[in-house]
């Protein structure tokens, strides 16, 4: 059963990777250059409601 689930997961992954993006660069657009940066998450909480 675990092998079957793993194969389904791999199929889903390849399907996702083959999906074309909805937003496309216009012709001649310069590549995005990221010089430096960071992302910070402060006071972020995740949880499930009880009895779910």
Automatic annotation (TrEMBL):
Domain of life, per lineage: Eukaryota
Name recorded for this polypeptide: Uncharacterized protein
Organism: Haematococcus lacustris
């Amino acid at each position: 059963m675990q092998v079957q689930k793993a194969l389904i997961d791999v199929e889903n992954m390849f399907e996702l990777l083959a999906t074309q993006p909805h937003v496309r660069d216009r012709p001649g657009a310069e590549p995005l250059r990221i010089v430096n940066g960071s992302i910070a998450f402060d006071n972020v909480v995740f949880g499930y409601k009880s009895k779910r």
